[in-house]
Each structure stands twice: as structure tokens, then as C-alpha cells.
Design a protein that fits this description.
Elements: E1 7-15, E2 21-30, E3 35-39, H1 46-54, E4 61-65, E5 71-74, H2 86-96, H3 101-114, H4 130-142, E6 148-152, H5 160-177, E7 180-185, H6 188-194, E8 197-201, E9 208-213, H7 228-248
Parallel strand pairs: 3-7, 3-8, 5-6, 6-7
Antiparallel strand pairs: 1-2, 1-4, 8-9
């Protein structure tokens, strides 16, 4: 018997109150533990898909299958509370769940160690670099050990070296915790490096126009980025993006 998907959008459309049609009949599925990237032009509804999967928005038509509450969300900006320490920022989801203090403290320590910030628990956000702020944001999303992690272009504003390092660290966390990841990006290279499957969306109204499976093994080391296989997948995804753009003209 075929296993049911862990999360899915079935013929989902989303029209906002101002009349903008953000999504049109989107079908999207992901298996438990899969790493999927959403790629497409600005305004094609990638972030709207994440909001639907997080339960922060509802479709105008169609249906959304998602975990009831076990979801972590990493936004484009770190969105840290500037007056709170790194530890207190990471602890926030546990405070909202009223987790016991000892349990929360242990979870925060574990999350900070996992992202390489165990020496910065008492630092304030203004004392961190851009990459460290994003690490804190990822730790906050992972502190509850979610089964689904949604990431909305988390590394777009970072320099290339920091971005590459965080790509590798994110994959290490994904392999360790076996969560399902849905990652939004504009970068073909980032999508190919991270993903098992890349979903290409067309211009608004957003819809799925292509899917590319990247069946390279993990862990994916830096040398993968210069391999013929990587270059071939990047070319395939770029061609799908180009065809999607041409279809929208």
C-alpha cells in the first residue's frame, strides 16, 4: 500500500482580500523526513505556501494536510527580541508551551550547541554577526524538536562563505533530527545543494510547473558544488525556471 504523504496541498488556490490571486490549484506533497525546496520568481507565492503549511493562513479553495502543531518556522530575517539574550530568544517557544524550567533550560542548551552558539547564551542580538543571528533563529525553531521545519529564504542576506557554511550545518541538523524541511530560496545552486527534490513554481498566480529530483547522497560535502552532477542538476533546474518564465510572458 502506498504511504500517505506527511504534508500536502491539494488543488490549493489563495486569493487575498485585495483581489490578488497568489496561488492557483497548487498540488504539492512531501514525505516524512524529506528535504524539499521551493524555487521560483518573486511574488509567485512561495511564502504563501509556507504560511499555509504553518497554519498561519487558510486556502481560498482546496485542502491542506499538515502536522497539527509540531512546526518550526525560520523567517527571512532573524526576528530576535533585541532586549533578550540569545538563550531567552531561543526559549520563547518553550515559554509559550509552559514547559517546565529545567526541561526548557536543557532544550535551550542542546539547541544552542547544535547550531554552534553554546558560548553565546547570554549575548544580546546586537552583539552577534548576521550569520550568528540566523543560527539563533534556527535554534529557536528547532528547540521544540519539530517534525516539520519551514524556512523562508533564511540565508539570502548573508555573504557567500557564511551561506555555504550554514547550508552544510542545516543539512547536518536535518540528518540528525530527521525532520521534514520545506526551504524557500531564489538560488538554484542552494536548492540543488540542499534538496532531495526541487519544486519550481511559475509566476503569479503561483502554481507548480516542474519538479527535479536531486538523488545525490548525503552528506553533501563542498566538493559536490563543483562536480559534473551538481552542474547538470543546476542546468536542469535553470532550464525549468526559464521555461516557467517564458510561459508567464
Amino acid at each position: 500500500m502506498k504511504q500517505a504523504p506527511f504534508l500536502a496541498l491539494h488543488q490549493v488556490s489563495r486569493r487575498f482580500a485585495n483581489g490578488v490571486q497568489a496561488l492557483q490549484q497548487v498540488d504539492l506533497q512531501a514525505a516524512r523526513g524529506e528535504f524539499v525546496s521551493l524555487l521560483g520568481p518573486s511574488g509567485c507565492g512561495k511564502s504563501t505556501v509556507l504560511r499555509l503549511l504553518a497554519g498561519l493562513d487558510a486556502p481560498s479553495s482546496g485542502s491542506v494536510q499538515r502536522p497539527a502543531d509540531d512546526v518550526g518556522y525560520v523567517f527571512q530575517e532573524p526576528t530576535l527580541m533585541p532586549w533578550a539574550t540569545v538563550a531567552d530568544n531561543v526559549r520563547l517557544p518553550l515559554r509559550l508551551r509552559r514547559a517546565p524550567r529545567a526541561q526548557a533550560d536543557a532544550a535551550v542548551r542542546s539547541a544552542l550547541a547544535a547550531v554552534g552558539l553554546d558560548g553565546f547564551a547570554q549575548a544580546l542580538p546586537r552583539e552577534l554577526s548576521g550569520g550568528m543571528k540566523m543560527r539563533a533563529s534556527i535554534a529557536r525553531a528547532l528547540v521544540t524538536r519539530p517534525s516539520l521545519l519551514l524556512l523562508d529564504e533564511p540565508f539570502a542576506a548573508l555573504d557567500e562563505i557564511t551561506r555555504f557554511k550554514l547550508n552544510q550545518d542545516l543539512l547536518a541538523l536535518w540528518q540528525r533530527d530527521a525532520f521534514t524541511a520545506v526551504f524557500v530560496t531564489h538560488s538554484v545552486f542552494e536548492a540543488v545543494f540542499l534538496s532531495q527534490r526541487i519544486v519550481v513554481m511559475g509566476a503569479r498566480p503561483g502554481r507548480v510547473v516542474a519538479e527535479v529530483v536531486v538523488d545525490a547522497p548525503y552528506p553533501r560535502l563542498p566538493a559536490f558544488r563543483s562536480s559534473p552532477a551538481f552542474i547538470g542538476w543546476c542546468a536542469e533546474v535553470s532550464q525549468a525556471m526559464e521555461q516557467a518564465s517564458e510561459a508567464a510572458l
